[in-house]
Write a structure and sequence with these properties.
292 residues; ATP hydrolysis activity; ATPase_dyneun-rel_AAA; single chain; ATP binding; 5-stranded parallel sheet; CbbQ/NirQ/NorQ/GpvN; 2 domains; alpha/beta
């Protein structure tokens, strides 16, 4: 792969099922060239997680995902001991010396790898997805920064474990809290926005065989119009694909052919009672009137 050729990156991502804009393709090429983590920020549903999956396809490597949440601690992200097997081993080795038993039960075969440890021990560099890092607390963020800086971890019973390979690291954030300056400085950064209609139409066609370019563009323009309404939960790309699949399943070739079906299937896009109420039939007809 030509590291700094963003057109080549975009083409390869497209072949892997992800339609990237030029800025994202540039960020990914620089990520590979500089060997830096890539922080993707944006609203939920814009396709941040899908970038990591496409990268794993692009590099033909494993995708390892760490899902962040409030209260996430180091053991859940790094490693744990298999306590049940350790207890069984202790019972089986009764009568042996304490040091000998300790050496046995704190060996590799009782170690449970969690995502961060697994990622640095792969024979081929994986894609490590640290998803929704903004949901973890600041203490865990500081620990994560240390791991991403050194790519080695310390296990008291085994010592320091260095990286076999350096993973391709993608972090995502929905912006629910401000990330530290230290983490931002460590990473390359790209803001992932909702796609423009032309690109979203290409996304639809790449995922749904048999859907025409005209209908795909109509769907993308309609979704764009809906996103501009005062909604509690703005539909993401996944919802767009669900809606497109539903319309294709109804054998609809033009949104104007069946406005009632268009309105009824908006349940694929609108996921709260308030939003369903806001986008009534009159609003649907108004928005549909703007779609060529």
């Amino acid at each position: 792969m030509t590291t700094l050729d963003r057109d080549d990156i975009a083409s390869r991502l497209s072949a892997a099922g992800y339609i990237a804009d030029g800025e994202l393709a540039t960020a990914i090429s620089l990520m590979a060239f500089l060997k830096r983590p890539l922080l993707l920020e944006g609203e939920a549903g814009v396709g941040k997680t899908a970038v990591a999956a496409a990268l794993a396809d692009l590099y033909d490597t494993r995708l390892i995902r760490l899902q962040c949440y409030e209260g996430l601690d180091q053991s859940a992200a790094l490693y744990e001991w298999n306590y049940q097997r350790q207890l069984l081993a202790i019972q089986a080795h009764q009568g042996r010396g304490a040091v000998e038993i300790e050496d046995e039960i704190f060996s590799e075969k009782y170690l449970l790898e969690r995502p961060l440890l697994a990622a640095i021990r792969q024979p081929k560099a994986p894609v490590l997805l640290i998803d929704e890092v903004d949901r973890a607390d600041e203490e865990f963020e500081a620990f994560l920064l240390e791991v991403l800086s050194e790519f080695q971890v310390s296990i008291p019973e085994l010592g320091t474990i260095g990286a076999t390979t350096i993973p391709h690291v993608v972090l995502t954030s929905n912006g629910t809290r401000e990330l530290s300056d230290a983490l931002r400085r460590r990473c390359l950064y790209h803001y992932v926005d909702y796609p423009e209609p032309d690109r979203e139409a290409r996304i639809i066609m790449s995922h749904l065989a048999g859907i025409g370019a005209s209908l795909s563009l109509q769907i993308a323009r309609m979704v764009e119009a809906i996103r501009k309404e005062d909604l509690r939960k703005v539909p993401g790309v996944a919802e767009t694909l669900d809606w497109a699949a539903a319309l294709l399943g109804l054998d609809l070739r033009d949104l104007h052919d069946n406005p009632e079906a268009v309105h009824q299937t908006l349940l694929c896009l609108l996921k709260t009672r308030e939003d369903r109420t806001r986008i009534g039939r009159e609003v649907t007809e108004r928005l549909l009137g703007r779609v060529a």
